[in-house]
Amino acid sequence: MSQGASGNSGKAGASGRTPCQAPPMNREQISRLAHADHPIAAPLDDDAVRLLLEHGIPRDDARILDLGCGGGEWLLRALAAHPRLRAEGVDIAESALSRAREAAREQGVDDRLVLHREDAARFAAEPVFDLVVSVGSAHAFGGLLPTLAAARAHLAPGGRVLIGDGYWEREPSAEAEELLGDLHALPSLLDQVVTDGWTPVHGHLSTRAELDAYEWSWTGSLSSWALDHPDDPDSAQALRAASTHRDEWLRAYRDAFGFASLVLRRTSK
Questions:
Q1: What percent of the chain has pLDDT over 90?
Q2: Looking at the domain assignment, is residue 59 inside a domain?
Q3: Residues 6+ apart with CB under 8 A from 178
Q4: Residue 32 lies in a domain
């Protein structure tokens, strides 16, 4: 999820260091550790993920694409549920793609999965996909509408988009806006989607339980790794990152932030 994982972890290694020190952990390393117990990088429980995929995948032999796939969890779950489905994923992080390949081999679905190490915003492919997924990755495209434009370019006729993005449930504080960026209220978010030529055919608003579970998992997994590896040179930084994230969540944006996942079809060509 872009608002949590990248927003705070990006600050974690900002302090200066001398040449003799080990390089600080990067955002991808922190995100990997933080998502160890919550492989879907968004505030969604397993039932919500299953229903979103059920509404997004039109038939058993569909082709799906995940723009910003990370460790490929959306694709792996879709492949497991649909034995004739074929999937492709795009991400810039080789370590995440390596985890996806390993998991696909372990689950016996690697023959139906193709992964590309590329910038998802620049990925070019034939528009043959029945479902394009981009959940929590709008920051990589420059916002919601550019994400939808990228997805549209890959859709086969009649295809669907599964997109997930944050919104403000209530008026945010200045600190929350600084942390999470230019989000909209839910009605405004839906207005943008509809005006851009899309019709929502299914949706899910993350519950308070899902939002809290995601944040506790993010901070808890990262903290546990740090405490389990006290001699690792990254341990102290990981613990600080988790503490900073937890503090910002509880004090700045917990009461204002929401997350919407939408299955969309094109209203117009």
A1: 86
A2: yes
A3: none
A4: no
Specify the number of domains making up the chain.
1
Question: Are β-strands 63-67 and 129-135 bridged in parallel, bridged antiparallel, or unpaired?
Answer: parallel
Nearby residues of 208 by Cβ (< 8 Å), 6 or more positions away: none
Cβ–Cβ under 8 Å, residues 87 and 112: yes
Helix (H, G, I), strand (E, B), or coil: what is residue 266?
strand
Q: What is the pLDDT of residues 50-83, one digit of tens each?
A: 999 999 999 999 999 999 999 999 999 999 999 9
Nearest to 91 by CA among 63, 120, 65: 120
pTM, two decimal places: 0.89
The CATH number of whichever domain residue 57 belongs to comes to: 3.40.50.150
Q: Where are the alpha helices (DSSP H) in 1-93?
A: 7-12, 27-34, 46-56, 73-81
Q: Once rounded to an integer, what is the mean pLDDT over residues 17-43?
A: 77
- The answer as to whether 202 is a domain residue is yes
- Please give the pLDDT value at position 269: 60
Domain that holds residue 178: 46-207+255-264
Residue 18 lies in a domain: no
Residue partners of 175: CB distance under 8 A and separation at least 6:
248, 251, 252, 253
Sheet holding 257-266, edge to edge: 113-117, 86-91, 63-67, 129-135, 155-168, 257-266, 198-205
User: Nearest 5°: CA angle at 205, between 202 and 206?
Assistant: 135
